[in-house]
Model the fold of this input.
Amino acid sequence: MNNLTIKPNEKQLECINNIEGKFLALAGPGTGKTFTLVQRIKFMLLNGIREEKILCLTFSDSAAMELRQRLEKELKKTSLKVSIFTYHSFCNEIISENPLEYNLAEDYRVINKSTSRQLIKETIEEINPVEYRSSKNDPYVFIKSILEQIEEIKKNRLTKEKYFNNIEKNPDFKPQIEVLNQKLTDYQSKGKKVPKYVIDGIEAQKKKIQKAVELWDFYESYKSKMDENYYIDFYDMINLVLEKFELEPSYAHRIS
Done:
């Protein structure tokens, strides 16, 4: 459907025609979020905001490309100066232009999948895990899983303190052992047979906690190897810039 045939509804107009302050548009796929954004940018340009002062961030390369194409079509221009990036490409551009600001070597590199797998393999050999082993005693089958969980640690920006505090206080970890141990004590004090699910549950929780501890060991070893070889990944790009913005709120203005 051509954008020219679409008439924005009341809520869309509220987003489009107000360019001061913050607006959050929550809607499902195909409901006109991109259309609203395109129209808002158009309205901004018509009201004197320069193209190079507008920044659009999205999650994927395909979404960034679609947004640019729709803007160019709407504005009938092919050389727009509106900045449209994915989150990680935007952060990477900032870092690449200011590597010393992030304590990175000038020859830092973005790690690829095969190198990531190799580094995880090396960490497995160093750590010699107990819980990350298959029924055939093979730890290497967990390479993909370990990488995905390390990404979650980075995505959630977990420090060591936060990570282990979660193990201590999250009901799915140590508190669950306390609950099961109390049941064990209750059955024993009454001279009753302890149900198998209690004994098995305590053992399963201990293994789960040990596995979580091993995962942090993997994370620290992997991060150390990345640092030694001047690698960063997509999550590092975002976290480095976020941390810089948080520590130095004026930094965003200096680089704009």
About this structure: The first strand starts at residue 55 and ends at 58.
